[in-house]
Design a protein that fits this description.
Three copies of one chain form a homotrimer. Chain A is mostly helical. The first copy, chain A, has helices spanning 17-30, 44-49, 56-60, 65-73, 95-104, 113-125, 137-148, 155-161, 178-185, 199-202, 209-220, 227-243, 263-275, 280-301, 317-323, 338-348, 365-374, 392-406, 424-444, 450-468; strands spanning 35-37, 164-168, 192-193, 248-251, 304-307, 311-312, 331-332, 356-358, 380-382.
Chain lengths: 471, 471, 471
């Protein structure tokens, strides 16, 4: 029998009445602030084309690796969830059956942030009032699909309804940003920008690196067989990105390693990388050097750097072979920052023009490395809890371990970092609630007064993101 | 002056009235569920022979390394606690004096789980109502000994009184499981099974490895001087264990490293290991390979694998020399899983028949590695907080860091993992209380409804252990 | 408009009324106990000369790296805060302007312990009732300076007013301890002792190591060009320190590594170190060996050892070059203890005379390594949360992760470890509050009774420090 689905107005606040009352007051003042989403992975085509979303399975299950990784972990085949096979082998095509499978396993998400995000979408976007289960799966599926077919649920309408002030996607330097330019030219008031994510032309281990380098050269008219031409190509594409409103770059390296090598050595590394003969250590060193090169360019052109290190990509060999990348099989690894970042920081750490936002998948670095680094270096800021850690508990751990040493002003507000467009308001709402509850705790143990906490709630929900990303 | 000893009915629940009320309700419904103890180290001879326990010191102090390590840390000689010297040197023989020494240092345990377990035993098993101290040490000692001499305190009677549905011990492949077979044949309804713990014949660095290999061959009629005979010997002993009701294996390796080497290389490693000339790295590699071999056999025979890595054994050279192993001198070390498990997972990670339960002594792996791994791979499950971490705080850290990414259904309920038989109900009670309080918190911040929390409380207390261990 | 500044009597206690009431009761009984400050970095000259402090900027900003690192992290030049340049370049000389700059950025400290310490000083030492801000900066500055000019604010008067029973500073073996001896001879009843901190003559990588060795020889009349003369010089200086009342040594090594090498090898290492030709690994090995040598001497002379490992010193190359060491640019790194300490522990770990107090900047070691080690080895004790972690959250993490395995009696009370003299009472007050709140939690979840918690509150606030440091 289906259970009632209600979003309690005090969800995620402390059970303590005193703290809850303070949190509620802080939250009331920020809950309707516009959403700044300065880092994420939605598809810009949605907002340029503004076509209706297909159906519930295509929108809510197939693109959401949080959802299908959990189902897979309990023995459900990815084929049965409709994920495309690399070899074109048949997979489930019937969205309804996929949805039913999901619904009948919805209990697996108890206690996870996915459950919270999904329930919020179900209530706030689609108006459901029963918890998803086997019995109401069809009703859910039909209701969602019917809604998606209406104009009110097209991408731009949702963008506006979600009160998004700015949304950033992430693109390769090879992208022509056609969708972003089309959006800008369309007269629609929604602001959708990109971020310069050069991994495909910086990481010698990226699939198709050599081809990408050639395309990079063709696109820019630079000779990317030489290191200076290659750097010049970066400069040109960064300038192009910037001309479309882009304010940041993003770097998804395996580690936080940086380097500052003599030019001749870098050129030799680049030649090796181009030839496909770089060893793993040489590839790593090239990526390390390129972070420093990117910092140098950021000082020139003002783009804010984001560093997202520490993910072991495509850990499941069988899944990678059958389904390709980004299939929920990326696993965090130990990541250290102190020695790794030193070459870049020695070179550019005190340059006034530089902002480098650090993220981590290794929470042990919060109090030990990241807060001490960001609490000292003028160029460093700390990104919010990322990926596996953007849960209520992850957000609390972040504030508890970072605030003491880095304060609030060396952090940059929230990133949703998601492909799941419909979950964006839910994710920001969780962040605002958790920040308000944390501030309420500081008020209740008399470390902040109410007015200060109120100012900080606005900073954390809105202002810091605008400042850090130069929006 | 002795203090009153009372077990408060709400112990370990949040001080918040609202959360406490929810926790109390959840706990009421699970507190009397039978105990599943799928992993531990009690002595099966207790239950086959059913002889009365000797005295309070022999039962509660000498076998409990949690107890004597704390006393030792504050300067009490292990000899004075009656622990046997390897060289036969005289140690304290008088149980009463040992008990008095313990009683006069009982304050050292304040705030530790040992204190909770012991107090629970004192109240619930023996009916005491004063906190143990110097003044009442003799009264305690005499009362316990008098009780132990009665039939109601023999092992089987306690097993029944404790409402244990199943108890698993852990034995070497060389064991004849005589006690387990005797129990099964005795007509007694208590279910006591073993687990296949092959470390003595898998770890080239285990004391007496060469002799154990010979015995392994004699026992199975296999030629354990060849790798194929050695593997066949494992298969036979696993089949024998299984025939007595065993459902799991257990592996206590220094690290989580696995390997999938070419057969010729494995045979060469095995020859080195047999000869006693394997280097530490070669011994490690052999253990790594054998985890993969054990996984292969588990797919065939269905035994659930348990991996307990990360303990630096016998750290105190002087204690090891004078008293031997398992004397409270094992210390956790950093443990990583992501790269280490990949060879095994690449080989067998998507096999439907495999269950591999991962434990850790390095809590930093919870949110960074273990929850992401178990939240993806179908064969992986997370064991409960282990050893040093089966405290209330350790249990809370586990749920807070694991649930967000792995949910509840990739965990396996509680293990007491103890030699201290009398503490088993107390340990499970702590786990049930902490889980109910954690669920109550999720109810109070409106992430779960009461009914869901009630279902989960039963799963965590009872059902998940049965399922995961195929009981 | 300035905000009211009030120190709430219940600050830092749980918002839960029940827990708060217990915490308040415990705190009432310990808040006025004398302060034992067994480890810190105040200047003994203050107490021998007893000259008035100069002004607010010199006293509260320039010596406090917590304060200026936060300001620097948000783009304020260290020159503008009046920190001296190594090259003698001009820096801000006007204390009032420095103070104004600080005041106008006081919001940066929201949520940090610095904010709490400073506010406590502002209220309790100077009687302010408004939060520092741009508008009242001059009033603050003038009021503080006027107070400092009076006798009641001279160092000895403040020492007495702060109810300090003992204060330890930290000096090089080359120090003549003139100030300490002058204090002892002065008839003043304040007890100010030193600690033997031999890094400058033990660490081959310390600036001026060779010169320090020569001076060490001259001072002791020993031939410090030989290892035996060098050891003898240590023995003499330790004896000298001890003769002035010193009870401890302190070791600030990059890692916790120890060694127990053959004598010939040590002598060769020493010769290399003296010559300035030791590689980083050789320097590390020499430091490692010297920890074991210091332990040997501690067994002889009874001095308590303190080990403070894990800081990457002077990480910011530009700041180090322009301003020198201790400028807020030291960053913690991963630190491991288990294998590292084994050589020393194998040699001396069971010697009854030895006390080795371990500190960490890597909180992951608390539950994994430090509590298990200290909960076993008789010579080991755990120092309190250190440096970046002496925040309310850091203190809670310490108790939550350490108590379960090491209990309370393997910890040593609080260290303020500060150069900021005025903040000492505030820092001890934070520690007492957090410990009382932690004990209150154990009372409220019925793990301790009130009387036990009361005993423990006194131990943690006062007695354990006296015992551990042999005061």
């Amino acid at each position: 029998m289906p259970r009632k689905l209600v979003l309690h107005p005090d969800r995620l606040f402390s059970p303590d009445e005193r703290q809850r009352a303070v949190a509620r007051g802080l939250y009331e003042a920020v809950k309707d602030l516009p959403i700044i989403s300065p880092h994420g992975h939605t598809d810009p085509a949605w907002f340029s084309g503004n076509a209706a979303f297909e159906n519930a399975a295509d929108l809510l299950i197939k693109p959401d690796h949080y959802v299908f990784r959990m189902l897979y972990s309990q023995g459900i085949a990815l084929e049965d969830l409709g994920l495309s096979r690399a070899d074109g082998a048949p997979v489930e095509q019937d969205g309804r059956r996929i949805w039913q499978l999901f619904a009948s396993h919805y209990h697996l998400f108890r206690g996870t942030p996915s459950r919270m995000w999904l329930d919020t979408v179900f209530v706030q976007v689609f108006g459901f009032d029963e918890v998803l289960c086997t019995e109401n799966a069809d009703h859910y599926y039909d209701t969602i699909n019917a809604a998606l077919a209406t104009d009110a649920f097209r991408p731009r309408a949702l963008f506006e309804r979600f009160n998004i002030e700015l949304l950033s996607t992430t693109e390769s330097p090879l992208s022509d940003l056609a969708h972003h330019r089309a959006i800008a030219d369309s007269g629609w008031r929604g602001r959708v920008i990109s971020a310069y994510r050069p991994d495909p032309v910086i990481d010698p281990e990226f699939e198709g690196f050599a081809g990408a380098l050639r395309e990079f050269g063709e696109l820019t008219g630079e000779d990317t067989s030489t290191f200076s031409g290659y750097l010049q190509a970066h400069r040109k594409r960064r300038a192009f990105f910037k001309s479309t409103g882009v304010t940041s770059t993003d770097h998804g390296h395996p580690t936080a390693r940086t380097a500052d090598l003599p030019r001749a050595e870098v050129e030799a590394l680049f030649a090796l990388a181009r030839s496909g003969r770089a060893s793993p250590e040489q590839a790593e060193l090239f990526r390390a050097q390129m972070l420093t090169e990117m910092a140098r360019m950021s000082i020139d052109d003002g783009l804010v750097m984001q560093l997202h290190p520490g993910s072991f990509r495509n850990h499941n060999a069988s899944v990678f072979q059958r389904f390709g990348r980004d299939k929920g099989a990326d696993i965090p690894v130990q990541t250290s920052y102190v020695a790794q970042l030193k070459p870049l920081l020695d070179k550019f750490g005190t340059e006034p023009g530089l902002t480098l936002i650090l993220f981590t998948l290794d929470e042990t670095a919060y109090s030990r490395e990241l807060a001490p680094l960001a609490g000292h270096y003028p160029c460093l800021r700390l990104g919010p809890p990322w990926w596996f850690h953007d849960s209520p508990e992850g957000m609390r751990r972040f504030r508890e371990q970072v605030t003491e040493t880095a304060g609030f002003y060396n952090t940059v507000g929230f990133n949703d970092d998601t492909r799941a467009f419909l979950s964006i308001p839910a994710r920001h709402d969780v962040a605002r609630r958790m920040d308000c509850d944390w501030l309420a705790q500081l008020v209740c143990d008399h470390r902040l007064d109410q007015a200060e906490a109120g100012e900080l709630a606005v900073e954390l929900s809105y202002t810091l993101a605008r400042k850090a990303y130069k929006l």
